[in-house]
Inverse folding.
C-alpha cells in the first residue's frame, strides 16, 4: 500500500448490520455494489463506502513484524520476524515493519536503531516501513472517539486505589483479578475535570474461536474477559487498540507472533468486530527457552541479534538456526535462505517450546564458514580484524587467510584472533610454547634463516623445499623443525600448514621473527 487510509471513514452501519451474513453473501454484496456503481454514477460515493465497509480479505498476503523499541532485537523477536518474512515471501506477499513506540517513557531512538540494524544485518528486507505508531496518534484518537460515540467504549473514573482494592478482594476469595465494570453504565462524570481512562466494552457473553495455524482451534469465553483499557489517563492509546487499528489500516492478512500473545487475541478480535473488520489469520509460535527450561534471557548468554554478530556468527547461520527452532522439513538441518522460502510452511511449526542450543548454532556457523565463498566470509571477517586494531589491507589478502583458517574456527571472532600474527607482531610466546625453543632448535632456526633469506621466490612450495633441506642437513625430521618454526613465527603451537603460514606472513616478517626466536633460544 502506498498510503494508510483510515478504515474509520467507511460507513459503519453497513458493517454492523452484516454480522449474521455468510462470507458468500458478503462477496455477493461486493459484486452487486460494483455493478451498481457502474450503472449509476451519481451514487458512486455511497457505493464506494459500502465496498470499503464489506469485510473481505485482500488478495495479497501481508504480514508484519511489530517490535517495541524498548531494547535490543531479541533472538525470539528475530525468529518471529523471520517466520513472518518467510510466509510473505513464500506466498508472493508483502512484509511490513511497524515500530510500536506508543510507550513514550520506555521507547528510545537507540532501540529503534538496534532493531533496524539487526533487520539489515539479517537481510530481512521489508516492503513497507518502518511505520511508527507515534506518527499515528491523531488517528488512534479518532478511533477511540468513534468507539465512545457508538457506545462500544466508555470512560472509567475509578481511582487506582479502588482498582487495587477490588483486585485484592477478588484474590482473597481466589477469584480471577479483573475490572468489575463499575463505570460500564455510568453516564456522568464525578466532577468536571475528573481524570479517566477509556475502556472497551467487551461482550458479556458468547465464545471466541481462534483457528490458529500453529495451535489449532482455541476457544475463549467472553465472560472471562474484562473491559480492557484502550486509552490511558493522559489520552495515549494502549497496545490492544493500536495493534488492531494498524492491522486493519495496513491490510494485514496473517499475524505471526509469539504464543505469549495468544491470550490477547480474543480481546483484539472483539475490538476488530466492533470496528467492523474481519480478523486476520493468526499463528502463535512457541517461546524459546534456555537449557534450564526457563524463558531465554540474558542469564543464558547472548540473546541480542547484534551480540551474535559481535561474537562472529554469520547472519546465514543465525537465520538457519532460528528457522529450525520449532520448524522442520524432514531431517534437513542446513537451509539456504532460498530453500527456506521455498519450503517454509507455518503449519509445520511445532506447538512445543523450543530450546536454544548454542553448541548447535556454533556447529551451523562453522558449517557456513567452511562452505560459503571465502570472499563473502572475508567481508564479515574484515570488521572483526578492525576491532582488534588490524588494517586488513596491510598484510596478506584476507580471502587467502579465510581459506587457510576456515577449517579451524567456529566463529569469525575466533578466526580473527587466530589470524592476528599474519598482520602484526606478537609480544610474547603463548604459555607452554617456549618449550619448543631449545638451543638445538635455535641452531636449526639460525640455519633456516640463512636459507630463507636467499630465497628469490617466496612461495609455499619453495618454502617447503627449503625447510626439508635444512631439516635433512641438521638431522631432524620435518615435523621436529616445523614446530619450533611455528612457535617462532606465530607465537603459538598451532597454525595452518607451516609453509603456507610463512608465505602469508611474508618474507621480511618471517626473517625478523626468526631472528627474535634465535635470540630467545640463546638464553635458554
Amino acid at each position: 500500500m502506498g498510503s494508510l487510509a483510515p478504515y474509520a471513514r467507511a460507513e459503519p452501519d453497513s458493517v454492523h448490520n452484516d454480522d449474521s451474513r455468510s462470507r458468500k453473501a458478503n462477496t455477493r454484496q461486493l459484486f452487486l455494489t460494483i455493478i451498481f456503481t457502474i450503472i449509476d454514477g451519481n451514487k458512486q460515493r455511497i457505493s464506494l463506502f459500502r465496498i470499503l465497509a464489506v469485510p473481505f480479505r485482500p488478495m495479497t498476503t501481508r504480514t508484519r513484524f511489530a517490535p517495541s523499541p524498548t531494547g535490543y532485537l531479541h533472538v525470539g523477536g528475530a525468529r518471529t520476524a523471520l517466520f513472518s518474512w518467510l510466509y510473505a515471501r513464500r506466498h508472493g506477499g508483502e512484509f511490513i515493519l511497524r515500530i510500536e513506540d506508543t510507550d513514550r517513557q520506555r521507547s528510545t531512538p537507540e532501540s529503534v536503531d538496534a532493531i533496524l540494524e539487526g533487520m539489515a544485518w539479517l537481510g530481512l528486507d521489508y516492503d513497507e516501513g518502518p511505520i511508527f505508531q507515534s506518527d499515528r496518534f491523531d488517528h488512534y484518537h479518532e478511533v477511540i472517539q468513534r468507539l465512545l460515540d457508538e457506545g462500544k467504549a466508555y470512560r472509567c473514573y475509578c481511582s487506582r486505589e479502588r482498582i487495587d482494592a477490588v483486585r485484592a478482594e477478588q484474590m482473597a476469595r481466589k477469584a480471577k483479578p479483573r475490572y468489575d465494570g463499575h463505570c460500564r453504565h455510568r453516564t456522568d462524570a464525578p466532577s468536571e475535570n475528573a481524570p479517566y481512562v477509556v475502556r472497551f466494552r467487551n461482550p458479556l457473553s458468547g465464545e471466541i474461536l481462534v483457528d490458529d495455524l500453529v495451535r489449532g482451534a482455541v476457544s475463549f469465553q467472553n465472560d472471562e474477559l474484562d473491559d480492557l483499557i484502550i486509552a490511558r489517563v493522559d489520552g495515549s492509546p494502549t497496545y490492544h487498540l493500536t495493534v488492531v487499528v494498524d492491522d486493519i489500516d495496513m491490510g494485514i492478512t496473517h499475524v505471526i507472533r509469539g504464543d505469549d500473545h495468544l491470550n490477547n487475541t480474543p480481546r483484539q478480535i472483539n475490538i476488530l468486530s466492533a470496528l467492523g473488520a474481519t480478523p486476520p489469520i493468526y499463528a502463535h509460535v512457541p517461546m524459546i527457552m534456555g537449557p534450564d527450561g526457563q524463558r531465554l534471557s540474558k542469564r543464558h548468554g547472548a540473546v541480542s541479534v547484534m551480540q551474535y554478530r559481535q561474537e562472529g556468527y554469520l547472519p546465514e547461520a543465525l537465520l538457519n538456526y532460528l528457522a529450525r527452532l520449532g520448524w522442520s522439513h524432514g531431517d534437513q538441518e542446513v537451509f539456504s535462505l532460498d530453500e527456506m522460502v521455498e519450503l517454509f510452511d507455518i503449519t509445520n511449526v511445532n506447538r512445543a517450546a523450543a530450546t536454544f542450543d548454542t553448541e548447535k548454532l556454533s556447529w551451523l556457523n562453522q558449517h557456513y564458514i567452511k562452505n560459503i565463498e571465502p570472499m563473502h566470509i572475508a567481508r564479515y571477517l574484515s570488521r572483526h580484524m578492525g576491532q582488534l586494531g588490524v588494517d586488513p589491507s596491510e598484510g596478506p589478502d584476507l580471502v587467502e587467510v579465510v581459506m587457510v583458517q576456515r577449517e579451524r574456527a567456529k566463529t569469525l571472532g575466533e578466526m580473527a584472533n587466530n589470524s592476528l600474527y599474519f598482520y602484526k607482531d606478537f609480544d610474547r610466546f603463548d604459555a607452554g610454547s617456549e618449550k619448543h625453543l631449545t638451543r638445538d632448535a635455535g641452531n636449526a632456526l639460525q640455519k633456516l634463516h640463512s636459507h630463507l633469506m636467499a630465497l628469490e621466490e617466496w612461495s609455499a612450495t619453495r618454502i617447503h623445499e627449503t625447510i626439508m633441506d635444512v631439516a635433512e642437513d641438521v638431522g631432524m625430521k620435518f615435523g621436529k623443525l616445523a614446530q619450533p618454526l611455528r612457535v617462532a613465527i606465530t607465537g603459538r603451537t598451532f597454525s595452518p600448514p607451516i609453509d603456507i603460514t610463512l608465505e602469508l606472513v611474508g618474507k621480511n616478517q618471517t626473517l625478523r621473527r626468526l631472528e627474535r626466536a634465535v635470540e630467545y633460544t640463546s638464553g635458554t
Summary: The longest helix spans residues 23-39. Confidence is low (pLDDT under 50) at residues 1-58.
